């Protein structure tokens, strides 16, 4: 079925609105909880996390360091580290970070969550470092996730635009 030009132009505004709604806010920082708790010394930071008493640890907008640059920059993701030091001390850290723009995922903590062993403040920690970018204060949850709707929105948008382009080309050829 070939769409008419009038139908294409009728569908264009709602499609553009959908794109604007699902596209991340460029240049805007995410709000994240920032805190550290070792062995439960700061309960508002520990799991289970209750954000009804944590306004003091919500940084809005959250800013973080960038690899190879001085200063703080608007964060693109919230992070949560939960683990255990070699001596058995438990640690929970909530904060934010930003993608530094390198080409490899393994050097960018905001692109993928990691579990295993790593160094934190020159001490070996076994645990998980999780990142999220789907909502302000997303590092409050025990299990963090990242955007899942972007792939679906991109597929729908691509299909709609391909249909509109096909319709326009068909009308111009006929």
Instruction: Please report the distance between the alpha carbons of the first and last residues.
Output: 15 Å
Summed up, the domain count is: 1
Instruction: Give average pLDDT, whole number.
Output: 75
Strand content: 25-35%
Number of strands: 9
Main sheet makeup: 5 strands, antiparallel
The number of helical elements comes to 2
Helix percentage: 10-25%
The radius of gyration over CA amounts to: 22 Å
Order of helices and strands: HEEEEEEEEEH
Biggest β-sheet: strands ordered side by side in the sheet: 2-7-6-9-8
Uncertain runs: 19-26, 142-157
Shape: elongated
Structural class: alpha+beta
What can you tell me about this protein's structure?
This is Protein sleepless. It holds the Pfam family QVR. Keywords: Glycoprotein, Signal. One of its GO terms (biological process) is regulation of synaptic transmission, cholinergic. It is a single chain. By secondary structure, the chain is α+β, with helices and mostly antiparallel strands. It has one domain. The chain is about 25% helix and about 25% strand. Strands 2-7-6-9-8 form a 5-stranded antiparallel β-sheet, with no helix packed on it. Helix 1 packs antiparallel against helix 2. The longest helix is centred in the last third of the chain and has 25 residues. It is elongated and about 75 Å long. About 15% of the residues have low confidence.
């Amino acid at each position: 079925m070939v769409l008419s030009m009038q139908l294409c132009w009728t569908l264009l505004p709602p499609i553009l609105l959908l794109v604007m709604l699902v596209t991340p806010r460029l240049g805007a920082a995410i709000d994240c909880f920032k805190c550290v708790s070792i062995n439960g010394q700061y309960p508002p930071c520990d799991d289970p996390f209750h954000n009804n008493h944590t306004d003091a640890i919500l940084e809005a907008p959250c800013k973080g360091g960038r690899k190879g640059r001085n200063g703080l920059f608007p964060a693109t993701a919230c992070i949560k580290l939960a683990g255990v030091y070699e001596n058995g001390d438990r640690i929970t850290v909530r904060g934010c970070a930003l993608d530094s723009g390198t080409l490899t995922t393994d050097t960018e903590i905001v692109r993928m969550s990691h579990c295993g062993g790593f160094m934190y403040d020159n001490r070996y920690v076994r645990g998980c470092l999780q990142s999220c970018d789907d909502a302000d204060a997303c590092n409050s949850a025990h299990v963090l996730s990242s955007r899942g709707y972007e792939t679906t929105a991109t597929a729908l948008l691509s299909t709609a635009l391909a249909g509109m382009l096909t319709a326009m080309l068909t009308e111009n050829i006929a």
